[in-house]
Design a protein that fits this description.
Length: about 250
């Protein structure tokens, strides 16, 4: 069942989204060669707590950390640890925060120092795929219109979209209906209505779309071990168009 948010619930989601955006802003400042992913996790948690919010990922289905930190061929759900970032890496950071019982969820992929032109092109294309997805978040469109727009753009750039993981409705729970795939035909799926809140999250691979999960049960990597990028926003559907909730205000 797709839940429509009340104006009060939307206010909580704006605050949760702003905290998430603050974390990603701080991550952009802190990502650098020599930094470990667990240091980034600690900084993220401090930002969330200092703003009166709760980390949404920690404890979710047993997930141990505040952020997901996914380096290079890791697609999503990388667990922070002692890994030291090195110049030329790319790192996807995904974070969720809860305010008054409502969630915000967003992700971005950052360069570690100077990166290759190829990796920069991957980041730019994945960020653009998210923008294109959000442009489709208008009342009367269907979820499939978002999916199709992402897949068409990504494949036009010579990349592939991950099929095994999808975006999602979000609210009191981090994962609500509907699923928001990054692939598929237009004109199918639920109609977008005012008050719907969606976490839209294209995951884009340089090589094939196939992924697998590492032994730790969490970390998703590309099967061919080529690089992958991930950007995500929580978006509110309104009569006057999409409102991105995971932004600074
Ligand atoms: N942002 C992720 C998602 O949309 C959530 C991470 S899963 C967790 O599915 F377990 F780490 F919380
Ligand atoms: Co998400």
């Amino acid at each position: 069942m797709i839940l429509i948010k009340t104006p009060n619930q939307v206010r909580s989601m704006r605050r949760a989204g702003e905290v998430v955006a603050m974390v990603l802003q701080r991550m952009a400042e802190c990502v650098a060669p020599g930094v470990t992913t667990s240091q980034l996790d600690a900084i993220a948690e401090a930002v969330i707590v200092a703003n009166g919010a709760i980390p949404a990922f920690k404890g979710y289905r047993g997930y141990p950390s505040t952020i997901c930190a996914s380096v290079n061929e890791e697609v999503v759900h990388g667990i922070p640890g002692s890994r030291v970032l090195v110049e030329g890496d790319i790192i996807g950071i995904d974070v969720g925060a809860t305010v008054d019982g409502f969630c915000g969820d967003a992700a971005a992929t950052f360069p570690v120092g100077a990166i290759s032109r190829d990796s920069q092109r991957l980041l730019d294309a994945t960020r653009r795929a998210l923008e294109i997805a959000i442009e489709k978040c208008v009342v009367g469109n269907r979820v499939g219109d978002i999916s199709h727009a992402v897949q068409s753009y990504v494949e036009s750039q010579g990349y592939s979209v991950v099929r095994d993981l999808v975006g999602h409705g979000i609210g009191r729970s981090m994962h609500e209906d509907p699923q928001v795939p990054n692939f598929g035909p237009p004109g199918v799926g639920p109609r977008l209505r005012p008050g719907m809140t969606l976490a839209i999250e294209p995951m884009v691979n340089v090589g094939g779309f196939e992924v697998e999960v590492l032994e730790n049960g969490w970390t998703v990597v590309t099967r061919d071990r080529k690089r992958s990028a991930h950007f995500e926003h929580t978006v509110l559907i309104t009569e006057s168009g999409p409102e991105i909730l995971t932004v600074l205000r």
